[in-house]
Amino acid sequence: MSAIPEFTESELSSIREFLRQRFTETVEIQLADAELRLDANSNVVTECPTVFWKARDCNFVVFKSGSNEFRCQFFYNPSDQFGTGHSHYNSLDACVSALLQVQSDHEREKQGVTSGITGKDL
Predict the structure, then answer these.
(1) Between vectors from CA 93 to CA 122 and to CA 48, what angle results, nearest 5°?
(2) Where do the domains of the chain lie?
(3) Would you tell me how many other CB atoms lie within 10 Å of the CB of residue 69?
(4) Phi, psi (5° rounding) for residue 109?
(5) How far is CA 8 from CA 25, 44, 56, 64, 97, in A?
(6) How far apart (Å, rounded) are the C-alpha atoms in residues 103 and 118?
(7) Confidence band for 36, pLDDT divided at 50, 70 and 90
């Protein structure tokens, strides 16, 4: 199996633009690697390029699991992790958009406000 390509400058710029729109300020992103089981039926782990950022006391990660495949989650601490309800995305924009929307909904629900749309609707 060939190595998964790193995030491109274009992909990183796209993530930065989503963050600027969502948080109305510059959010620093960090590049990392994570080991993921890409096949739920296998114990084999694959090193995947990862983008991490923190905003509003929440941590976000987007994993590149293939040339045009992405996964994501957000968490407040290691035992308090959330996904979007989708195991993977074929579009980085769809992945980041869903991640930010589901986290926003979650944040509002924690504050007792509902928007009428939840992560299940995405």
Answers:
(1) 105
(2) 9-121
(3) 17
(4) -60, -40
(5) 22, 26, 26, 11, 18
(6) 10
(7) very high
pLDDT in tens, 46-60: 999 999 999 989 999
Tokens of 102: 């589901």
- Type and span of the H or E element at 31: strand 29-36
8 SS3 class: coil
| Burial grade of 73 (CB within 10 A; 0-12, 13-18, 19 or more) | middle
> Both tokens of residue 75?
């968490």
Instruction: Name the 3-class secondary structure at 111.
Output: coil
Q: Are strands 81-82 and 69-75 parallel, antiparallel or unpaired?
A: antiparallel
What average pLDDT does the chain have?
90
pLDDT at residue number 1: 46
Q: Which amino acid is at 48?
A: C
Where do we find the tokens 């633009």? Answer: 17
